[in-house]
Amino acid sequence: METASETTTILLIDPNNEDRRYYSERLKISSKGYNVLEASDAESGLAICRAERIDCVVTELHLPDMSGFQVLIRLNPIVHRSLHTPVIALSHFILPSIIEAAKKLGAQSYLIKSHASCDDLDRAIQKAIARVEVARKEVYGERGQAGISEGKIARSS
What we know:
By secondary structure, this protein is an alpha/beta fold. The chain has helices spanning 17-30, 42-51, 68-75, 96-104, 118-140; strands spanning 8-13, 34-39, 56-59, 87-91, 107-112. It has one domain: Response regulator (Rossmann fold), CATH 3.40.50.
């Protein structure tokens, strides 16, 4: 349960200004405990992840500078993806193979923009954060901490 002093920092990566603003505003309304940061491309989003404590990343898969799949790989190294940052893919792509690939690369959930409400996104964020916390506690015990910070993002070579 969230106390008044706790905030959950969400990073929303989406090149579509209208979609990004809509989801950002709706998330802020749905939970006063959300601090929503925004990025219009992958590199900006990854830079924010290196600089800030992020509790959950929500990303579009179609980005101008790299694919959302590359973002998933850089945020969640394959071997330990369940122990890092919860990521929600929120995209217009509806092909089952794309949804499956996103989940295999570490997306905790995949929502299709035309079918997902902000309430659906809020629930997906909460579930994703909870699942990652359970996984951290199983591996690290009580010292597992939420959020990502500098050093936890895989850098491309």
